[in-house]
Design goal:
The structure holds two protein chains of two kinds. Chain A is an alpha+beta fold. In chain A, the strands form three sheets. Chain A has a six-stranded mixed beta sheet, with helices on both faces. A five-stranded mixed beta sheet of chain A has the order 9-13-10-12-11, sandwiched between helices. A two-stranded antiparallel ribbon of chain A has the order 6-7. By secondary structure, chain B is an alpha+beta fold. Chain B is globular and about 60 Å long. A seven-stranded mixed beta sheet of chain B has the order 1-2-3-11-4-10-9, with helices on both faces. In chain B, strands 13-17-14-16-15 form a five-stranded mixed beta sheet, sandwiched between helices. The chains are: A alpha+beta, B alpha+beta.
Chain lengths: ~425, ~425
């Protein structure tokens, strides 16, 4: 697979990967925005409004019919939170031209993307009111529905409490109240401003040559408005010295959810980051981690317990599902396992399992278009180069001592518990 | 070893029946880093009543899933998880209504990983203590599903619509039913179902087929014939209950509707009916249909809405579900649209377009190793060849789809499951 990153226009980057291993080609278009509570939901709303109609396909049904004709291609919204950066855009995947019997798909998909982004249906100088209102309602419902998934709800509530004075507290899709008072005209202006003032990251993976892809994309990008100054995006890493805060919430649920938030100064650009990844795997990621083996399997304290990293922000989250009366024993158990890591009580076997798991995950990353896209965009945001294969090489040389040192950078910040409502 | 080329799909499949009776297929994928080895058992949560050599067994709900959890245990305090982790494999397993599968994804040491996979699944080891401990873990898992509206809404639909078929019961069973499981239950069910004649091995990756066959030939032990299953009386087409409601912590009503239809036959028939059912769902209320557009524009459904066809041994259903402020209005509209389509017939160009779309999506699905393995096994257990899907698509005619809709999507065959919010939220 040939990969390359090139600047198509000032501030517009293409992350290109050529391969003929897949039957599916894909691309994504992403605008990089500073994560902010007031903007996150209105920004996230925009791609959904765009998918309601454009010059080429004036309504939703026309878009779906077009995608049917293109051998069941799909195009959807793509909103991500990467540290304190929100990416806003669209993702498309489609049958590779060599499997399409009668008409090539790639160029038609690029043209559809161009029309959706730059030629949305308009009325009275703004987005079509009906499209905007419909999608506003859908997004508001999606935001309300976050609490249907108690596990991610608990982690989100934990992060909100932990980072209440930081941009990071804002959820990926923002908050419902910020959707009030928007209209077609202000939203259209927001979209034009975003197109003009954002760093743009494009991703393509498929059989097409670099020339075919750059020509196709430049063809649609020429109509994009561009400003001289681009909005700056960055993530603030915070490590303050304060006592652990404890937060509890009650709801009518049958299983309790425990979420812990920890901070570290190590982020993706830090040379110690691969060691932190290994530590995270030893502690709480995968089926050989201490949380899985000791807390779940040996002590039957919970159905799940795992940890994850935000490599941009320097935050580790631990998430667990427990019986309500196991709160203290589960919390103590989880913290005890972390303490063991800090004291260096990690076996060779635990270390090598964790390393093997991570290296294998990095190497299989290039077999997966979605992960390739996500990694490339993440690297672009962190201002890093290097592929998942490069990461695999770095993971190879991480030592036990580096892992223990990484563990000792972690400080518990917030403990959140979602428990059942009293009868 | 048989070699089957599928040039239009850009695939080549190698197949061998081992002397143990295990059907093994390899799909080479040159240039990929990962290899996927998938060992499936034709045994799921619906297989609670069966007979072996004329002796019938009735087992508690949830044994297939429980067994899957306990398979990883090995004698002498061993656990297959650790063995995999030593050779860099990521193992996992799942149990569905009709299949149990164990699989491992790896980048190196493919032979070692495959060996561990085969050895651990062919080494049953259950003790009273380990069964006892697992009951705690699975009880937690069941509680978690109880809080999940997504799974509840469909489980409730199946429990309402079907009168006696075991699809009525949830895959993991209940806290009470798993309490009745003993190590002996596990051994009985293991011996009945985990026999090579009732299983299939698939390997997808940059591998040499002969090496896979040789290795499996050495490890897989001989076994008995597959058991005879009993799913009870054939289901009537009228739902046992037309409606089931529940209140949960959800923000908006969530619904699943189902229309009972005649179960498919075996082999190519099963795949053909699935394609007909899928196309019927697309024509009726797929994303590019008139009805979908109308419901979406009226805010009666959102982009989470989906419709499709479900077929299992002994039961078949066209289903649709999602979130809606007014699920009954959606049901009403679906029934009326079905009448309209049946009266007017299915438009030629629409039919061809939807067929092209569905075929394109299936072809793209071949990029997923997991989906290829799963589908190869699932279709094989139905007696069909997964890679024959392009021919099956070609055979399907619009009149068959119209006939399916006419027969299936009607008031008397409809059942509805709704989960309402516990309280109005601000």
């Amino acid at each position: 697979m040939h990969t390359e990153r090139l600047e198509l226009m000032p501030g517009v980057w293409l992350n290109f990967a050529q391969t003929d291993r897949f039957k599916t080609g894909c691309f994504s278009f992403n605008l990089l925005r500073p994560l902010a509570e007031a903007d996150a939901a209105p920004n996230a709303l925009l791609p959904s409004v765009l998918l309601r109609g454009c010059r080429l396909c004036p309504d939703m049904q026309a878009i779906s019919q077009r995608l049917d004709t293109l051998y069941g291609a799909s195009i959807g919204t793509l909103i991500r939170k990467k540290g304190e950066v929100q990416t806003v855009g669209l993702f498309a995947d489609f049958l590779e031209d060599r499997y399409a019997e009668s008409e090539p798909v790639f160029l038609q998909m690029v043209q559809l993307l161009g029309s959706l982004l730059f030629e949305p249906c308009m009325e009275q100088g703004g987005f079509v009111r009906e499209f905007l209102e419909g999608e506003r309602l859908n997004l508001a419902n999606t935001l309300d529905a976050r609490m249907n998934d108690m596990r991610s709800y608990a982690t989100a509530q934990m992060l909100k409490a932990m980072c209440r004075d930081e941009a990071y507290a804002t959820a990926r899709l923002g908050e419902k109240y910020t959707l009030e008072g928007l209209n077609g005209e202000t939203m259209y202006r927001r979209w034009q401003d975003m197109l003009a003032s954002s760093q743009v990251e494009l991703f393509y993976m498929g059989q097409q040559t670099k020339e075919a892809v750059t020509d196709g994309l430049l063809g649609i990008l020429e109509s994009m408005p561009r400003a001289r100054e681009l909005a700056e995006v960055k993530t603030e890493v915070v490590c303050h010295d304060r006592p652990v805060q404890y937060v509890q919430e009650e709801m009518d649920v049958t299983q309790g959810k425990l979420a812990l938030g920890l901070r570290t100064e190590i982020t993706a650009s830090d040379p110690r980051y691969p060691a932190l990844m290994v530590l995270n795997a030893v502690f709480g990621a995968g089926m050989t981690s201490k949380l899985f083996v000791k807390i779940r399997e040996e002590q039957s304290l919970c159905y799940f317990a795992n940890s994850g990293l935000d490599k941009f922000k320097g935050v580790m989250s631990v998430s667990s599902g427990i019986e309500f009366d196991k709160y203290q024993i589960a919390l103590d158990g989880i913290l005890h396992q972390l303490e063991l890591c800090k004291q260096g009580q990690i076996t060779e076997q635990e270390l090598e399992s964790a390393r093997g798991y991570l290296i294998s995950a990095s190497r299989t990353g290039r077999d997966n278009p979605v992960r390739l896209d996500d990694y490339a965009i993440g690297q672009a945001i962190a201002g890093l180069d290097g592929t998942m294969d490069d990461l695999a090489v770095k993971l190879q040389s991480v030592t036990m001592q580096q892992v223990v040192e990484a563990a000792n950078t972690l400080r518990l910040d917030t403990v959140y518990f979602l428990k059942g409502a009293e009868a | 070893m048989i070699e089957k080329p599928y040039p239009h799909l850009g695939e080549r499949v190698y197949e061998a029946r081992l002397s143990s009776g295990l059907l093994t297929r390899v799909v080479p994928k040159p240039g990929f880093a990962k290899t996927y080895a998938f060992l499936a058992v034709d045994y799921g949560s619906i297989d609670t009543r069966f007979s072996v050599n004329g002796v019938s067994h009735v087992t508690p709900e949830g044994v297939a899933h429980f067994l899957e959890h306990k398979m990883f245990d090995m004698p002498n305090d061993g656990n297959a998880m650790y063995q995999f982790s030593e050779v860099g494999g990521s193992p996992n397993a799942f149990t569905s209504y009709d299949i149990t599968a164990y699989y491992v994804e790896c980048t190196d040491h493919v032979a070692e990983n495959l060996k561990i996979l085969l050895e651990f699944v062919y080494t049953p080891y259950f003790t009273a203590e380990s069964v006892d401990k697992e009951q705690g873990i699975i009880a937690q898992e069941i509680r978690m599903y109880e809080d999940s509206a997504d799974s509840r809404v469909y489980e409730n639909l199946f429990a309402a619509a079907f009168a006696s078929h075991p699809i009525r019961n949830s895959i993991a069973g209940t806290v009470e039913s798993i309490g009745q499981i003993t190590d002996q239950t596990l051994y009985d069910c293991y011996r009945a179902f985990y026999t090579p004649a009732n299983m299939m091995l698939c390997v997808v990756g940059d591998v040499d087929p002969q090496t896979v066959f040789d290795l499996a030939e050495k490890i897989v032990p001989k076994g008995e014939a597959a058991p005879v299953r009993d799913y009870g009386e054939p289901e009537r087409m009228v739902p046992a209950n037309k409606r089931v409601e529940k209140k949960m912590e959800v923000s908006m009503p969530m619904f699943a509707m189902g229309f009972k239809t005649e179960p498919a036959g075996c082999g190519a028939d099963a795949m053909r009916q699935e394609i007909i059912g899928e196309l019927a769902a697309e024509i009726l209320v797929g994303e590019s249909s008139d009805l979908y557009t109308k419901l979406y524009e009226k805010n009666l459904i959102d982009s989470d809405f989906s419709a499709g066809y479900e077929g299992l041994k002994g039961v078949s259903m066209l289903t649709a579900g999602g979130d809606s402020c007014d699920p009954d209005a959606v049901m009403e509209a679906v029934l009326r649209e079905s009448e309209r389509i049946c009266a007017n017939g299915v438009d030629d160009s629409l039919f061809l377009r939807l067929k092209r779309s569905a075929l394109g999506r299936r072809t793209r699905g071949l990029d997923s190793f997991e989906s290829v393995c799963y589908r190869m096994c699932a279709y094989h257990f139905e007696g069909a060849d997964f890679f024959s899907f392009p021919e099956r698509f070609r055979e399907v005619e619009q009149e068959q789809v119209a006939e399916f809709l006419r027969r299936t999507v009607r008031e008397e065959r409809a059942a509805m499951s709704v989960i309402y919010p516990k309280q109005e939220r601000k």
